[in-house]
Design brief:
By secondary structure, this protein is mainly α. It has helices at residues 2-12, 14-25, 29-54, 61-84, 88-106, 118-130, 135-170, 174-186, 188-199, 203-228, 239-257, 264-282, and strands at residues 57-58, 261-262. The chain has one domain (2-109, 141-281): NCX, central ion-binding region (A middle domain of Talin 1, Up-down Bundle), CATH 1.20.1420.30.
């Protein structure tokens, strides 16, 4: 779960990062906001819902507490940004929050076995620090990672340009396009990772990836958009989308606190909630967007 909170979460959030950064630099900050908020809704409802349906996801009492606290912190930051907007100052503060979150995630340790002696744990720790991957095994994934980042950067330019053109042609707001079409695309990495992890029984990774991505999105990615943007981005026009995100955080936090696993029934409920979000935003229900 610690790996999912930070390493995997940041990696799978690279599409959101580059799309939001490109949007901010292009002067379409609403697309960045919609992408981040929509991606968080997708992570909580679509990604974890699908993971729970694919394989019931269990967690410990301690992990449930950590997950609930992260979701409540994300909700609190979202509410705060509604009043302050996202500008250079608030963006810098969000990046500072991400630094604090990263420090916390790196200190998240598995409890050592009670049968292990202090001397044995010390020797194991020292031995682990001396182990380094062979050069070929290190540079090969690093090369593929660099190529992947380059592809994501190129695709983010295309995604932003296409989203802007689609919004102009259809009359739909950029925030709504970002919260639905773009966010579904940028959360595909989280979806694939959590599905594979859930099927393999790696429950901590499946949950940590999705919830960690929410924290990464609201701090690192929203903060980057605020720092790079030429003007302060207001979140108040996106009240409906933000309301859905807050409801999603609270629903998922309740599932974590009141239960020991995300059962298939809870997964179906999360997927239905995401379907309701898309239905509402599509305007088919006759409700204001």
């Amino acid at each position: 779960m610690a790996v999912g909170f930070l390493l995997v979460a940041v990696s799978t959030s690279l599409p959101e990062l580059f799309v939001s950064a490109t949007s901010a630099l292009a002067g379409v900050g609403e697309l960045a906001v919609g992408n981040v908020i929509g991606a968080n809704i997708s992570n909580c409802a679509l990604v974890l819902g699908a993971a729970a349906v694919a394989g019931s996801v269990s967690y410990s009492k301690r992990e449930a507490k950590e997950l609930g606290l992260i979701l409540l912190a994300v909700a609190a930051l979202t509410i705060l940004l509604v009043f302050t907007g996202i500008g250079a100052v608030s963006g810098a503060l969000l990046l500072a929050c991400f630094a604090g979150y990263a420090y916390w995630a790196l200190s998240f340790r598995r409890e050592p076995p009670q049968t292990a002696t202090t001397q044995g744990r010390k020797k194991a720790s020292q031995a682990f620090r001396t182990i380094g991957p062979p050069t070929a095994e290190f540079f090969k994934p690093l090369l593929f990672f660099g190529i992947s980042v380059a592809v994501i950067v190129a695709c983010s330019q295309f995604a932003v340009a296409t989203a802007v053109s689609f919004a102009k042609a259809s009359g739909i707001t950029l925030a709504l396009v970002g919260a639905t079409i773009v966010s579904i695309g940028t959360t595909l990495p989280e979806l694939s990772v959590s599905l594979v992890a859930a099927r393999a029984g790696k429950n901590g990774l499946a949950i940590g990836n999705a919830v960690g991505s929410c924290a990464t999105n609201i701090t690192l990615i929203m903060g980057t958009a605020g720092v790079l943007g030429a003007k302060t981005i207001s979140l108040q026009p996106q009240a409906t989308i933000i309301g859905f995100s807050l409801a999603t955080y609270l629903l998922l936090a309740a599932f974590f606190v009141f239960g020991k696993r995300l059962s298939q029934a809870k997964g179906v409920a999360l997927l239905c909630f995401y379907g309701l979000f898309l239905f509402w935003q599509s305007g088919l229900a006759g409700l204001p967007r």
